[in-house]
Design a protein that fits this description.
single chain, 543 residues, alpha/beta, Leucine-rich repeat, LRR (right-handed beta-alpha superhelix), Immunoglobulin-like, six-stranded antiparallel sheet, 32% helix, 21% strand, elongated
Amino acid sequence: MQKTASEHEACQQLNEDYQTETYAQDVFWQLLESTCGYRKPKFYSFNDSFASAAQINRTRTLRAKRMALGGIVDPLEEEERETKEGQSAVILDIAKFEQKLALNKSSVAGGLDWMGSEEAKLMGKLPPDLTGEEVIHCFETLRMPRMNIVKLDLENFQRLQELDVSGNNLGRIDGIPWSLQILNAYDCQIDEVGNLPEGLLHLGLGYNQQHSNQQIDAIVSMCPDLVSLDISYNALCDFEVALTSLKSLKKLKHLYLAGNPLALAPNYRLWVLKSLEGLEVFDDIAINPNKIEDVPAGVQLTSEIKIKVSLDSIDGIRKPPSVEEGEGNEESRGNVTYQYYAQFTTPASPEQQSTSKVDWASAMKTEWQDQQVVMPGTALRDGLLFSGADVTIYEEMITLPPPSEGDDEEEAPAEDAEAESSPQPIVQVSEVGKVHMDLEFMLDPKTTDNGNLAVFDERAFLVLAEAFMPAESEAEPQEAVVDKKKGKGKGKGKASEEEDEAPAQPASVRFVFSINAVDPASGVDDQEEQAETSTKGKKGKKR
């Protein structure tokens, strides 16, 4: 359903209103008026010390009912029954509400998804003289995301069961009713959990700033009946302590820890499944009861992370001019040499690393590698999530000026004088190309610890600087092509193939970044041995 122009104006006005910090109840009444046209009542309850026009009207209505009923039924009890029926008609059903959200029904401010729905029509039929307390009791579900709310003051919503306040700068969870069963507070800058209802069944605190395992202990002690807990993408680092705390949640079925630094611990998924046997979904992956996922024998629970980084080779760089021109021109020019090296940064070492310098070749072996053991931390997690790895290749051209013509006739000076008068080499460094590699996939539990390895082992292709772009090859004359074909036909094809240059390979680097992975080299050797054994066996059968 498309929004009308007036609805768009209302949405824009609400967004402007929410630029200032406000409390949750103020936002609630603004949403109610904007989506349903129901204004905030003047009085919160009938306990106010002064009368109002609404109370006078209600007294007149009760008098009329008393006369119609003839005193058989107490009109106060009759009105209370009618009010409860009206409330039950407008109370939001969680399943229906979720279904409407899934269908992307329009909403003015994203909080009360009622525009054009049956609930909105029912809300409009409520008596205009209800108190604020009566209106509040009509709600079991509230969604107020990204409304610039700084404090929750919803204790009076005693019928509220589901609350979503994601995207607000709360900092702390407080001021929620004890009737609440579902609470979503994603991306709220929360670093401390205040008071939570004991009957809470689902708690969503992903993308916050929880960094202390004491907060997990607080959640477990306040909400022992949790069935679903999402604390993904926080700053929890101590895997062993967190696992011990979560064991107390005996009814837990759904758990989300992905994105925390502790999720990089070795055998992370297997240890969680072994410790929390009642789980049905872990990190958004359904658990197959028929599949055995257990920690390998002899493996100890630890938070230590093993990281390996290597840059094996630089390939496909175009020939430098000195090599292109050949060795016969050294008399007419200075002695020029070319060397190449790589500089790179990784999430494991944000400081720049450099390989050793190597002479030009079509495939230059750098063979740089580093291994380290670190503890989980937000720097490593954020590096994988946002920075990745960056590699830049440089060319160093060293020119040694040719000796002067009179050097042979002069006598050999003293060693110090010779050192001072010897020509100094000229060094010129140029950027050949660079490449960026995303490593965010290593935080995805579906591609790392679920039977796979967290490894980036690929040939990454460089984005070359303009000076190092390969020259477009000129088309050969048709006669030359015919001569080559004739030569191959006369048995000279082998020599021709040797003379022909191999096609130019794209410039690239072989880069490896792995976390808790088996050494790829050993795996390759094992595969080669198995292949060799199987080949020998096949040959034996043929004989």
